[in-house]
Design brief:
single chain, alpha/beta, Rossmann fold, 2 domains, nine-stranded mixed beta sheet, binds NADPH dihydro-nicotinamide-adenine-dinucleotide phosphate, binds the ligand CC[C@](O)(C(C)=O)C(=O)O, binds magnesium ion, KARI_N, oxidoreductase, magnesium ion binding
């Protein structure tokens, strides 16, 4: 098998990378009709498998699960969770032959092996679905020509796919049909119905391609979504402790801080988040984030370049072949960081305090969101997709850190995202070392406004506001948020 993207002529690469159309709600008026009464079998019941299945069943679809014999025999979490939720569960041989739609929600590393086992059991003309296109795009998996191949990729951790659905909303979703596998022309109708069933249409759906999804998803998860939140957590915690701040307080501040500050990001964009700071703090935050953008830009660009060229995927696949040596080592190192090892103190921190004492964290979020967006767009990813993959998803990842710190984030995201997160983190920490030496507590743990007058130069403030508001991500965000009429505020803390 060869990297599918790299086999395409440049013209076709650019076409597939740029394939992305925001779908109006009127395109979903058929609801789940295209899948109503069809037998839908989900393979794997982890982060996405279980949560997508729960949403789809609540939306009126017929869902069952195919698990490995060993998972059933050993009564693994996948078997217990699906059985206790009342789903029909069986082995591949028991449930796949009658399925109209088989949804592969196993880890990317297992896709070749899973698809090779599942495909011979699938009936003629059935559909195979993915939630991430790695197997098709980076590994070049070939699928039987009578099968339709679709993708419904939630731009969110599986836990939040369920939480947002229960709130009456959903998560932005990219849908695609593999151009090599749409023999009956039914792919788009099924992908749309599936996205409605998970709640994706309420947040926004993009009609995209496997290629555009892979090249943007890998970029988001490695940089702003997971990599930078990990680096920022570790560096900010160590700085606060170095400056004499109580370690338990710092652990609590950082664990919950990302969630609190990115809630205003989700609802009001980057400007909305910085509007929560006092005027002098906003000016300072702008300057700090500009410096961070200059330092980190080459690293963001390297990640995007390696993703586009296939260098990233071949490196990760080498690690798969070596039994995840790097992944497991990095996972262990993350567990040993002082941030992870320090229990959060039982102290009250008000919502406003997270902004006033967390200026550096706000600056990191702004720098990371804008850099990820800019780098993706430069590489040919459409703005709407880059927005979902950077700005909208950051709070959804922050929700997982608020639950159980970096451990929880890395447990809930895919193994692919976890690998990329560590890869970025191990390159970013040394890159920020000199910058961090100059950081004082007034931007990391103490109130920036304390002991200062609240005055600010008019011209400077006007320029800062103008720069924030005129960034392309703000225009794209305002449009997309305009369609998110059911978005809910979440209860914080
Ligand atoms: N994690 C996330 O939130 C997101 C994931 N995705 C994509 O969704 C897909 C699923 O990812 P994710 O939910 O993280 O996966 P998980 O790691 O959570 O999947 C675990 C499930 O896969 C099963 N499994 C593991 N190995 C095998 C195997 N060799 N054969 C059969 N079943 C196996 C496990 O079975 P058992 O119980 O037997 O161990 C378990 O049920 C991936 O393509 C990922 O990129 C997309 C968006 C976000
Ligand atoms: C951010 C990581 C992700 O792409 C996701 C939750 O969207 C993943 O692969 O887990
Ligand atoms: Mg993703
Ligand atoms: Mg991913």
């Amino acid at each position: 098998m060869a990297n599918y993207f790299n086999t395409l002529p440049l013209r076709e690469q650019l076409h597939q990378l740029g394939q992305c159309k925001f779908m109006d709600s009127s395109e979903f008026t058929d609801g789940v009709e295209a899948l109503k009464g069809k037998k839908i079998v989900i393979v794997g019941a982890g982060a996405q498998g279980l949560n997508q299945g729960l949403n789809m069943r609540d939306s009126g679809l017929d869902i069952s699960y195919a698990l490995r014999q060993v998972a059933i025999d050993e009564k693994r979490a996948s078997f217990v969770n699906t059985s206790e939720a009342g789903f029909k569960v069986g082995t591949y041989e028991e449930v796949i032959p009658t399925a109209d739609l088989v949804i592969n929600l196993t880890p990317d590393k297992q896709h070749t092996n899973v698809v090779e086992s599942v495909m011979p059991l699938m009936k003629q003309g059935a559909t195979l679905s993915y939630s991430h296109g790695f197997n098709i795009v980076e590994e070049g998996m070939q699928i039987r020509k009578d099968l339709t191949v679709i993708m419904v990729a939630p731009k969110s951790p599986g836990s939040e796919v369920r939480e947002e659905y229960k709130r009456g909303f959903g998560v932005p979703t990219l849908i695609a049909v593999h151009p090599e596998n749409d023999p009956e022309g039914k792919g788009w109708a099924q992908a749309k119905a599936y996205a409605v069933a998970t709640g994706g249409d309420r947040a926004g759906c993009l009609k995209s391609s496997f290629v555009a999804e892979v090249k943007s998803d890998l970029m988001g998860e490695q940089t702003i979504l997971c990599g930078l939140l990990q680096t920022g957590s570790i560096l900010c915690f160590d700085k606060m402790v170095e400056k004499g701040i109580d370690a338990g307080w710092a652990a609590k501040f950082i664990q919950y801080g990302w969630e609190v500050i990115t809630e205003s990001l989700k609802h009001g964009g980057v400007s909305g988040m910085l509007d929560r700071l006092s005027n002098p703090a906003k000016v300072k935050c702008f300057e700090v984030s500009e410096e961070l953008k200059d330092i980190m830009r080459p690293l963001f660009q390297k990640h995007q370049d390696d993703i586009i060229s296939g260098e990233f995927s071949s490196t990760m696949m080498k690690d798969w072949a070596e039994d995840d040596k790097n992944l497991l080592n990095w996972r262990a190192l993350t567990g040993e960081t002082n941030f992870e090892k320090t229990a959060p103190a039982d102290v009250e921190i008000t919502e406003q305090e997270f902004y006033d004492k967390g200026l550096l964290m706000v600056a990191m979020v702004r720098a990371g969101v804008e850099l990820a967006f800019e780098t993706m767009v430069e590489a040919g990813i459409i703005g709407e997709s880059a927005y979902y993959e950077s700005l909208h998803e950051t709070p959804l990842i922050a929700n997982t850190i608020a639950r159980k710190k970096l451990y929880e984030m890395n447990r809930v995201i895919s193994d692919t995202a976890e690998y990329g997160c560590y890869l970025f983190d191990h390159a970013c920490k040394p890159l920020l070392a000199d910058f961090m030496k100059g950081v004082e507590a007034d931007i990391c743990g103490k109130d920036y406004n304390e002991g200062k007058d609240n005055g600010v130069d008019n011209v400077t403030l006007i320029k800062v506001n103008e720069a924030l508001r005129s960034h392309e991500i703000e225009a794209v965000g305002a449009r997309l948020r305009g369609a998110m009429t059911a978005m809910k505020q979440i209860a914080l803390g």
